Amino acid sequence: MAKQIGTTAPRVDLGIQMRELRKTAGLTIEEAAKTVSGLTYDKLRRIELGQSTFRMVGDLRKLLIAYGVGDDVDLVQSLEELYKTPASQDWTTQFGTVLTSTKTFAGIESVAHAVSIYHPNVIPGPLQTQEYAHAHFTQVQPIEETTSEFINSNVALRMKRREPFLRDEEPRKLWAILGESALRHPIGGASVMRGQYDEILRLTALPNITIQVLLTDAPVKRLWSNFTILDLGGDRPTTVQVDSGLGSAVSMSDRPATVGRFTRWFNTMTASAQPPEETPAFVETLKREKT
Fold first, then answer.
1. Which residues pair with 242 in a beta bridge?
2. Opening angle at CA 84, ends 80 and 86, nearest 5
3. The pLDDT of residue 4
4. Are residues 113 and 122 in contact, defined by beta-carbon separation less than 8 angstroms?
C-alpha cells in the first residue's frame, strides 16, 4: 500500500472496497440496497463514495452476506475495523470548512500510488505555493459566502496534500500537463507568480515529478476542464475526477470506459505538449517577464 499523509480516510477506503465487492457479486446499487432493511439507493451510493457510513455494523454484515463473502472472516473483520474507526482519526476532519466533495477526493488521493493531472488554466494544487493557493481561493471565491476561515482551511489542506509528492521515502509520482495559459494567467501579482515559477523549477528537478506545458497553439484536441487520474494501485480501481477549477469536484468515476477515455486524452496531450526537459527554460522565460 502507498504511504499516506495521515490515517487514510476510513470511510473512503471502506466505500471503495464495498463498491468492488458489489460489482464482483454482479449487483447494482439498487439491488444491493434492497437486501438490507432501511438501506436506500442514495444511502448506499454515498457509502460507496466515502461520504457516509452504515448506521450499524449489522447492516455492513448483512450486505457482505448478500455479496457472498459473509464467511470470509478476515475480510469481514478488516471491513468492520474500518467501519469502527473513529471519525477523529480521519485526517481530513481537521479541515472543518472544506467542502465534503473536496475531503472525499483528498481521502481517495491519499492512497494513490501515482497521479496524472491536466490543468488548462490554473496551476494545479500539487504544484502550488501557499501564496499562490491563497491568492487563487481569494480571487475565485468558490462558494457564495467565502470566508477567511474557508480560504485558510482549503489552503492548509492543499499544502497537506502536497506532502506525499515531496517526501524522501517512496514519494508519490506526479505527471502534470499545464496549459500555457495556466502559467501565464496572473494570480496574486508579480511577486506571487515569481515565487510560483521558482517552485515549479524546483519540482521539475525531482525524479518523481514530470511537468509538461501544452502550448496554446499546439495542434491537439484539448479539454477545457481540469481532470485528475488517480492510480490507486493493488485491487483498488483507478479513479478520474473532473474538476471545475474552483475547488470543488464536479464528478468522480471509476468506470473503466470513463477512465479509459480520460487516459487516452491525457496520453494524446502528453504527446503534443512540450517535452518535460523543455519546461525549465519555458518557465525561466516567464519568470524574466515578471521582473
1. 227, 251
2. 155
3. 42
4. no
CB neighbour burial string for 198-235, b if at least 16 within 10 angstroms, e if fewer = ebbeebbeeebbbbbbbeeeeeeebeeebbbbbbbeee
Range of the domain at 29: 10-91
Instruction: In whole angstroms, give the CA distance from residue 45 to residue 85.
Output: 20
Bridge partners, residue 29, by sequence = none
Q: How far apart are CA 103 and CA 92, in angstroms?
A: 6
Phi, psi of 59, deg, nearest 5? -65, -40
283, burial (CB in 10 Å: exposed 0-12, middle 13-18, buried 19+): buried
pLDDT tens per residue, range 239-287? 898 875 444 446 788 888 999 999 999 999 999 999 999 999 999 999 9
From CA 235, how far away is CA 58, in angstroms rounded? 25
Strand partners, 230: 115, 239
How does residue 139 score in pLDDT terms, banded at 50, 70 and 90? confident
* Predicted pLDDT at 9: 62
CATH number of the structural domain spanning residue 37: 1.10.260.40
Number of domains, the chain:
2
User: Do 51 and 189 have their domain in common?
Assistant: no
Tell me, yes or no, whether 63 lies in a domain.
Answer: yes
- Contact, 287 vs 186, CB < 8 A? no
Task: Return the percent helix, strand and coil in the chain, to nearest 5.
Answer: 50, 10, 35
pLDDT digits (tens, 9 = 90+) for 148-200: 888 888 899 999 999 999 999 999 999 999 999 999 999 999 999 999 999 99
